[in-house]
Design a protein that fits this description.
About 45% of the residues lie in helices and about 15% in strands. By secondary structure, the protein is of the alpha/beta class. The termini are far apart.
């Protein structure tokens, strides 16, 4: 619960964390100019190295304020004299940093949130607007005096359910409306809340490198909280973990890979076996490719294909760190493989199509994604997904299996995509489909769950 308004604000000399707040402000400005949030944060932290606590605070403030942009703009419009879009841009993003602390953090004293915001205005080129920053943040505190539980408490909410959902949880209007079309209100609400929680850090342990229990013990010995994931032989999660992953035990030794808990469930559905010929058609950055390679144990053939040669290099680096061999890399358009490699027709026992998608299941992980994606882009992705499915099924051996997977919860890209394929090509049979993560309970029905949102469908010849 956010703290109530203080009666006395401390001078800046006693406030800490100014550098982390300045870094967050810079990231917000870069994202508003078109940069991706993760790249902007990496550049800012490289430009001005911070201590580990300050890095964590800068990350929290930057990503949190970007996620909550719509709600913060609503507060700015309610408290200021101008709508958020008409405010001077640098003032708008500075106020977002300050308001985010007051509305969402129970660790940061309100005094520190206000005084550092005012000092940033003074030292960051907005000295004439420092009184505006001070006055608006104090007004927000007075409006919410008593520590209201919800960050939207005190705002006048729209009567329309979709508009209310989108404002309260800072989602684009089109997505909020779609969620209420797809699911019951309580499931849409659960998904919206999930999108604004910092994502879990899940790891997949490398078989044959000591095992999950040994890694758990190594992490705990290093003072790092870690828990085994249920219903998984190799997965574990690090609650609240941030910072340089390369410093974790077992990184250099190749004991583990970063992989979301639900992403780890896709390859078991593919069910590859040593000695088989396997194609990972959209492979980069290689999480599932290396998972397949671990199962094949160097026996058989594994092709990792991706359009980007640069991204394929990440697959090679991941495989090298994990000590995996037997992965052949090919930079190519997977929709053209049947034409460019006719010898591949009907030759693969297993094909994984982790298709390009809207990524709606990963909004918590990618803070700015909700503001970049436009609904018309979904139809372009659907066309690409159809082309990939049609092309890759030509490469599948008569008794083979293809798994179609996405990291989205959009029915057009998931269940409807597979239904359209089966209606067009009845020789293929659906052996099962699953939806995991926010909005998916694992059996296709919507429910709240930890982890990213993933969909998978298993196809075989009838």
């Amino acid at each position: 619960m956010p703290p109530s308004a203080p009666t006395l604000f401390q001078p800046l000399a006693t406030a800490t964390g100014l550098a982390s707040r300045a870094a967050a402000w810079q990231v917000l400005q870069a994202v508003a100019a078109g940069a991706y949030a993760d790249a902007a944060l990496d550049r800012q932290l490289a430009r001005e190295p911070l201590s580990a606590p300050d890095r964590a605070l800068a990350t929290e403030l930057a990503y949190g304020a970007i996620r909550q942009r719509r709600l913060l703009d609503a507060w700015l419009a309610a408290l200021g004299r101008l709508p958020a879009e008409r405010q001077p841009p640098r003032l708008r993003w500075l106020l977002h940093v300050g308001m985010y602390q007051l509305l969402f953090s129970d660790r940061i004293p309100a005094a520190a949130a206000v005084s550092t915001s005012v000092e940033l205005a003074r030292s960051g080129g907005l000295p004439r607007l420092a009184p505006v920053v001070n006055g608006l943040l104090r007004t927000l505190l007075r409006r919410r005096e008593g520590g209201a539980a919800d960050p939207w408490a005190g705002l006048e909410l729209p009567l329309d359910p979709a508009a209310s959902l989108g404002l309260r949880h800072s989602l684009p209007a089109w997505l909020a409306a779609d969620l209420l079309r797809w699911w019951p209100a309580e499931a849409a609400e659960a998904f919206a809340r999930h999108c604004n929680r910092p994502p879990a850090l899940d790891l997949r342990c490398r078989p044959g490198r000591g095992g999950r229990q040994a890694l758990l013990q190594a992490l705990q010995s290093a003072g790092i909280a870690a828990e085994a994931l249920p219903d998984s032989d190799h997965g574990l999660t690090l609650p609240g973990r941030a910072g340089d992953l390369r410093a974790l035990p077992g990184y250099q030794e190749g004991w583990w890979s970063v992989q979301d808990r639900h992403a780890q469930r896709i390859v078991p559905l593919l069910d590859p076996h040593p000695g088989q010929r396997v194609l990972d058609a959209c492979a980069a950055p290689g999480g599932k490719t290396t998972q397949i390679a671990e199962i094949l144990q160097g026996q058989g053939q594994l092709w990792a294909v991706d359009r980007s040669a640069a991204r394929l290099r990440r697959v090679a680096l991941n495989a090298e760190r994990l000590g995996l061999a037997g992965i052949s890399l090919l930079a190519a358009d997977a929709t053209q493989l049947a034409t460019q490699h006719p010898d591949w027709l009907g030759s693969f026992d297993r094909i994984l199509l982790d298709a390009p998608c809207s990524g709606l299941g990963t909004l918590a992980r990618h803070a700015d994604a909700r503001w970049r994606l436009q609904p018309e882009a979904i139809e372009e992705l659907v066309t690409l997904q159809d082309n990939l499915l049609r092309s890759l099924l030509l490469l599948l051996a008569p008794a083979g299996r293809l798994v179609y997977a996405t990291c989205t919860i959009h029915p057009r890209e998931n269940q409807e995509r597979i239904a359209a394929l089966l209606a067009e090509q009845p020789q293929w049979q659906l052996r099962g489909q699953r939806q995991w993560g926010p909005g998916g309970s694992g059996d296709g029905g919507p429910a709240a769950a930890a982890g990213d949102g993933f969909y998978a469908a298993v196809l075989e010849r009838g």
